[in-house]
Amino acid sequence: MKKKKPEFVKFSTIKNYIKESQKFRSSNDGVEYLTETITEITLAILNQAKIYSNEDSRKTIMLEDIKKAKKKVIGKKYLKWKDIFEHIKALTPAGIGNLTAAMENYIRESE
Fold first, then answer.
1. What does the alpha-carbon distance between residue 22 and residue 31 come to, in Å, rounded to a whole number?
2. Nearest-angstrom CA–CA distance, 78 and 71
3. Burial of 81 by CB count in 10 Å (0-12 exposed, 13-18 middle, 19+ buried)?
4. Distance (Å, rounded) from C-alpha 65 to C-alpha 52?
5. Mean of pLDDT values over 10-24
6. pLDDT, tens only, 40-49
7. Average pLDDT value for residue range 2-10
8. For residue 1, what pLDDT is reported?
9. By C-alpha distance, which of 14, 13, 86, 71 is closest to 41?
10. If one looks up domain 7-76 in CATH, what number appears?
């Protein structure tokens, strides 16, 4: 028999949150996909945190294990300039013009 994955966030919790706080309706398959994604990410973080805990010869997953695991699984918050450039290349010429103007304003205000 296949082991059922845990439900870290209930389907109805997400559905109600979207309805009440976002003032939007949501499709059932979209909410289901989101709950599955949250479960996958949570399991990946916990599995990696367990590895870090084992490396330190502990049987307790600590906050620092989870923080390191989150960083490894989800990634960094800030993009490197090369990644940013890839996003810029996808902009339209008008979008690049707007970005350039915003950067020039930022530089002028910072001086």
1. 14
2. 11
3. exposed
4. 6
5. 94
6. 999 999 999 9
7. 85
8. 64
9. 71
10. 1.10.20.10
Q: Coil, strand, or helix at residue 111?
A: coil
State how far the Cα of 91 lies from the Cα of 81, in Å rounded to an integer: 16
DSSP calls for 35-65: HHHHHHHHHHHHHHHHHHHHHTT-SS--HHH
Tokens of 29: 């398959």
Total residue count of the chain as it appears in this document:
111
Contact 15, 31 (CB under 8 A): yes
**For residue 51, is pLDDT > 70?**
yes
- Note the pLDDT of residue 76: 65
